[in-house]
Amino acid sequence: MNTGRIVRLAERDRPKVRFVLDGEMRSALAGDTVLTAMLASGHALRSSEFGPEPRAGFCLMGACQDCWVWQEEGPRLRACSTPVTEGMRLSRKPPEGWP
After folding, report:
1. How far is CA 90 from CA 11, 32, 84, in A?
2. 89: which strand partners?
3. Whole-structure pTM value
4. From start to end of the chain, where are the E strands?
5. Distance of CA 70 to the CA centre of its chain
6. In whole angstroms, what is the distance from residue 88 CA to residue 26 CA?
7. What mean pLDDT is predicted for residues 65-94?
């Protein structure tokens, strides 16, 4: 059963890639962007910094700054233009002390 915002209808034969999101193991398909991987396994990319609303990305092409997520090590990345990789560790919330 798919519980994500994105429902994959075709092209399911690519190799699986496992990644960690907020401490939970998730899976995607090789070649997916981080945005696709996150939305296929959940309903939101992150929360808005201006209110409680969930965000799912906006332009989906790296121009709007709406899809930033954090790696567990601290650096941010654009979810819409970064390929998900095996073992990637991601967080929807900024790390402690992030400006």
Report:
1. 25, 15, 10
2. 20
3. 0.81
4. 16-21, 24-29, 46-47, 54-55, 68-71, 76-78, 89-91
5. 9
6. 10
7. 89
